[in-house]
Amino acid sequence: MPIQTTVMVIEHDDWSVFTRDTGVKATVESSIPIPSLGIKRSVVNINASSIGEVKELMRRIKEFRQVKAMNVLDKHVSRNNVTVTLSTIRVLNNSVLELLLNNNVYYYRELITSGLEYWLVVASDLSNLIRELRERAWLRIIKNTNVNALLSNAPLTRRETQILKVAYETGYFNWPRGISLSQLASKLSISKATLAEELRSIERKLVQMELYRDNLLNQTR
Fold it and tell me: What percent of the chain has pLDDT over 90?
């Protein structure tokens, strides 16, 4: 049986419900299961239009009985956007991630928005997992997607990540800018023209990844 990349749309009666009537989006960037301890450690990016929405979501996460710990790793606040990165420790038992592990399904990423959880997974056979999710009344939609399209969204190179990090930390993306293109090029020891080309490449990759993810979500709604 061929390997398939699949989007599963799941509805949980937990803190993700808060995103139903707000513009809050939560992306689980990494989730590491530790079966011996019965927990999973995750890194979650929260994106919202106001700090109030983020604080309310964090309050709900803390109150959720399966969350054992939560810490703020990073925070960025601008006029119309707030991004907070959290580390969480949650119970693994009876979770979706545990079901994935038990059914030999590869977990790729999870996005929480509009009260729904979008799980992107890779597997050759999802029949047992789908049956278990439906028995729990969690599964709303399941849709195969194009693995080639997924893989074509190449991550940033190490050099591009370095440039992006320096540009971000020196305030190049702030308004007004904390550093000019010429000053940033000098700091990175490259020409202004080369830096402009590198930044366009970085922006193109990031936009492609975001548009692909948005298109993926629209296909499953």
Answer: 52
